[in-house]
Amino acid sequence: MIYICLPVHDEARTVGPLMWKLRKILTDPEFRRDFQLVVLDDASTDDTRAVLERYRTVLPLTILTSDERLGYGRAVDRLLREAVERTPYPKRDAAVVLQADFTEDPGFVVDLVKTIEGGADIVAGTRADLDEPTPRSLRWARRAAPWVLGRAHRDAPVGDPLCGFRAYRLIVAKKALRDDDTPLCASDEPWAANLELLSRMTPHARRVEETPLAVRYALLARPSRFKAMRALRTLFRYRGGRWWNAPEGDAA
Question: Considering the domain boundaries, does residue 44 fall inside one?
């Protein structure tokens, strides 16, 4: 079973097309797998919930809700816990986490899943070079992040530890929660949350692999919420940290 985990917040303009695209990909006869979509509506104030409800009859879709804003990290934590609770076969089943704003091409779910099936426990999407149009602040922050993180970036088990488009074998998440029931990730800043999650999962994984993916900011249907200085300030708290330790003083 593949659990597709989607944290959503005010994504009414993109979550519908994303659901349609995922349905097309996951039911393709050349790839067909058992799957469930698990979506957390993180206190959306637009029509996100109404759009999601339309897909209940055509997809194996579970909609979780939060009346208060959890933020990206805690939303991902809740989704992964839900997948761990649901799976009867954690050594076989996997969860894929991706964003709902359509900047991450859902077609790459196929590559992530096939790599998990090939024996990997964690498969991390690694962004290709920023050749296509990319918001200037994001491009600048991406180039600055390795310096800001220092050893924490150089020693990372993957080339792009900031990207959250990943697949996790659920036994890895189950072991991480068994050893420490604190949130797998909790930062509201997505890059920091992705670092936290990789740090918690990696010690329990036998194999960590990567697969390249494309990011398509030209398709973003709303203004970007990314704030470069906020992201880099948050990452600075991880500078020089070891992958199996949370950054000292992290409020998450």
Answer: yes
